[in-house]
């Protein structure tokens, strides 16, 4: 809920940073000014986003904008900004936002382009893994490397890759899959592994490849073009629950398939019988997708196997249920421009990000000249002992020789003691470089790099005014969420008496139309519907009608039983809301006959039947009353002359 709320709020107020140099004050809240530039930018930004036409009215929009500022003022007055949870969340948002400023755009672009070019192909590869931890000692690393080299020599001498993978690979899955990883494209494997796979020819075996898991030998079995994306429609019958008759679902999907073979309309059958309610109303149409985007390989493979010549699948089963899939269209992979944002996001979460970080660090070393005090550094080196390798080393209690400045980043001093505290924390990293002085040299480089990056990140507001503006909006947004949660949302859920009292005033807005408990019978054959009509008149059940008119080979009739509200799409057109059996009607290729068993008169919905809508309306009611109270608590003064000029400028 908070993500959705902040997403809307930041859209609303992304440009709402106070303009200290604005020429005119639009309004004040307890003497705090808010300027015309801010209001104009917010309004123009949201003009095409708001659905309520009244919110496009400038007078109405000013009311909303003032209300927003009143709520933020109230949150600050209540000191919600001091809440530890708020501060933690704000820090988290800042970390996320800062990623846009702590990357090297040139390196990012190169990695995006590389990832895109690789995405044009899908590789089927097998591997043999010899485990070696990232922080393994040089001796253990060498042992793993020698082991994998020995295996590679056996492979180059003609031994079978699958057999050696089963026998020698330390990837547990290799016992079952013989090391085969299936098809993958860019961003599916760790970067070093991916790069080696894409650089190895089909049928060839790579040199040993080091990743965080260990050493790999990769054999590329096949390379195929990326299948792109596909648009399909489907009819689904869900798998039965445990204990239910599994043949029922299978029989139903087979009956539907028979009707398709008889020439009946796919979209109409999907609307009537598909259990995927999110797509049924659209004739079974799904959003287009590519390889690996769905959670069912069976469905993806079944869909991509379709062609223009054979556009409809026979029934097949996935872990979700039975499907019949119809091809709508196939699309080639997206262009680089279309994929850019998605690829940038993947790069930031991938091993590739280390390359970007290293590039930025190189620039920061040039931006912030570091001059080390070698005397303080020497004292720090002397303080570290071999106990480090056993995780037992402690920072000395006497720090007079290391408390001095080790180096500075602009006005920030970092002491030798800061470095020693960092070294203590690194004992958990498994760092095994020897002897100790070499270890400290290595850790010093990492320490300086981390300090440079941290200083740069901590001071983004000073270097990038737009970053400072967006962070200000995050601060207000989080405060406002906490305030709304306290004043409106929780109250609307827990104030049972108030909620039910509000419901009593809103009854007339929440009513059921006349409803009917009915049986609907459909067929593409007039004579079949006539037979069904005769049977209905003799009080035959739906099952009896299906048993009589359907055969093992042909599904002539389908039935639906439910309670329908007057005007519901599922009811045949012009159905009279009265007990009895209708005449035969036709829509498209289908003939319908409806038997209404019971009529439920129009009535007010009970509280439970419309509780969700009542809660939503109650929240809006509470919020409006609350804003009115805030206007009494704080003094709002609008400069009407300035506002009129703003309106004229916007209308132009």
**Number of helical elements:** 25
Give me the count of strands: 20
Stated plainly, the CATH topology of the largest domain is called Triger factor/SurA peptide-binding fold
Question: How far apart are the termini?
Answer: 38 Å
Throw out a few tags for this protein:
Chitinase A, domain 3, 20 strands, five-stranded antiparallel sheet, single chain, alpha+beta, 49% helix, 17% strand, Triger factor/SurA peptide-binding fold, four-stranded antiparallel sheet, 5 domains, 652 residues
The gist of it:
The protein is α+β, with helices and mostly antiparallel strands and 652 residues long.
What is this structure's SSE topology?
Elements: H1 2-13, E1 25-29, E2 32-35, H2 36-46, H3 58-77, H4 84-98, H5 105-119, E3 121-131, H6 138-156, H7 161-168, H8 174-177, E4 180-184, H9 191-199, E5 209-210, E6 214-225, E7 229-238, H10 246-261, H11 266-273, H12 277-280, E8 289-290, H13 297-304, E9 316-317, E10 321-331, H14 336-349, H15 353-367, H16 374-383, E11 405-409, E12 412-415, H17 416-425, H18 436-458, H19 460-463, H20 465-494, H21 496-506, E13 511-512, E14 515-523, H22 526-537, H23 542-549, E15 558-565, E16 580-581, E17 585-587, E18 590-600, E19 603-604, H24 611-633, E20 636-638, H25 640-651
Helix pairs in contact: 1-20, 3-20, 4-20, 5-14, 15-18, 16-17, 20-24
Question: How would you describe this protein?
Answer:
It contains 25 helices and 20 strands. With 652 residues, the chain is an alpha+beta fold. Strands 14, 15, 16, 17 and 18 form a five-stranded antiparallel β-sheet that branches. Strands 4-3-6-5 form a four-stranded antiparallel β-sheet, with helices on both faces. Helix 1 crosses helix 20 and helix 15 crosses helix 18. The radius of gyration is 34 Å and the shape is flat. It starts with a helix and ends with a helix.
């Amino acid at each position: 809920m908070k993500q959705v709320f902040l997403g809307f709020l930041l859209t609303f107020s992304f440009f709402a940073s106070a303009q200290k140099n604005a020429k005119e004050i639009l309004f004040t809240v307890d003497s705090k000014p808010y300027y015309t530039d801010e209001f104009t930018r917010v309004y123009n930004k949201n003009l095409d986003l708001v659905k309520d036409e009244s919110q496009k009215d400038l007078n109405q929009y000013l009311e909303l904008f003032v209300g927003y500022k009143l709520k933020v003022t109230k949150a600050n007055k209540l000191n919600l900004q001091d809440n530890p949870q708020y501060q933690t969340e704000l820090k988290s948002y800042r970390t996320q936002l800062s990623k846009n400023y702590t990357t090297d755009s040139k390196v990012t672009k190169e990695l995006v382009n590389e990832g895109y070019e690789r995405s044009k192909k899908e590789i089927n590869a097998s591997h043999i893994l010899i485990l070696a931890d990232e922080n393994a000692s040089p001796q253990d690393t060498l042992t793993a490397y020698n082991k994998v080299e020995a295996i590679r020599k056996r492979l180059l001498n003609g031994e079978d890759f699958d057999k050696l993978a089963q026998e020698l690979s330390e990837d547990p899955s290799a016992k079952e899959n013989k090391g085969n990883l299936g098809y993958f494209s860019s961003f599916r494997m760790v970067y070093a592994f991916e790069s080696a796979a894409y650089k190895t020819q089909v049928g060839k075996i790579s040199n040993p490849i080091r990743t965080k898991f260990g050493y790999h030998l990769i054999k590329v079995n096949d390379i195929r073009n990326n299948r792109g994306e596909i648009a399909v429609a489907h009819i689904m019958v869900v798998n039965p629950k445990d204990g239910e008759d599994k043949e029922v679902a299978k029989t139903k999907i087979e009956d539907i398939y028979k009707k398709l073979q008889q020439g009946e309309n796919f979209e109409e059958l999907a609307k009537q019988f598909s259990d995927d309610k999110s797509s049924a109303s659209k004739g079974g149409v799904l959003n287009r997708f590519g390889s690996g985007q769905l959670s069912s390989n069976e469905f993806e493979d079944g869909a991509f196997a379709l062609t223009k010549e054979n556009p409809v699948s026979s029934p097949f089963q996935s872990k979700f249920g039975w499907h019949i899939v119809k091809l709508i269209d196939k699309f080639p992979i997206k262009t680089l421009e279309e994929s850019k944002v998605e690829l940038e996001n993947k790069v930031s979460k991938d091993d590739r990000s280390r390359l970007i970080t290293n590039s930025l660090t190189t620039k920061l070393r040039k931006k912030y000249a570091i001059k080390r005090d070698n005397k303080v550094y020497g004292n720090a080196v002397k303080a570290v002992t071999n106990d480090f390798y056993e995780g037992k080393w402690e920072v000395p209690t006497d720090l007079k020789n290391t408390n001095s400045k080790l180096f500075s980043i602009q006005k920030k001093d970092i002491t030798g003691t800061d470095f020693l505290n960092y070294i203590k924390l690194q004992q958990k990293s498994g760092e095994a470089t020897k002897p100790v002085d070499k270890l400290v040299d290595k850790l010093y480089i990492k320490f300086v790099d981390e300090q440079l990056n941290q200083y740069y990140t901590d001071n983004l507001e000073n270097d990038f005014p737009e970053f400072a503006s967006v962070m200000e909006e995050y601060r207000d947004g989080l405060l406002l969420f906490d305030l709304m949660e306290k004043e409106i949302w929780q109250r609307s859920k827990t104030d049972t008496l108030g909620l039910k009292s509000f419901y009593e005033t809103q009854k007339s807005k929440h009513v059921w139309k006349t409803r009917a408990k009915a049986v609907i019978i459909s067929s593409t054959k007039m004579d079949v519907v006539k037979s069904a009509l005769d049977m209905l008149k003799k009080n035959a059940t739906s099952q009896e009608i299906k048993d009589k008119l359907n055969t093992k080979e042909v599904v002539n009739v389908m039935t639906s039983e439910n309670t329908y509200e007057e005007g519901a799409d599922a009811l045949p057109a012009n159905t009279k809301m009265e007990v009895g059996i209708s005449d035969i009607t036709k829509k498209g290729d289908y003939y319908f006959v409806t038997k209404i068993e019971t009529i439920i008169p129009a009535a007010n919905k009970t509280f439970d039947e419309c509780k969700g809508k009542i809660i939503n309306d109650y929240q809006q009611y509470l919020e409006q009353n609350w804003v009115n109270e805030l206007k009494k608590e704080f003094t709002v003064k609008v400069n009407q002359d300035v506002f009129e000029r703003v309106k004229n400028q916007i209308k132009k």
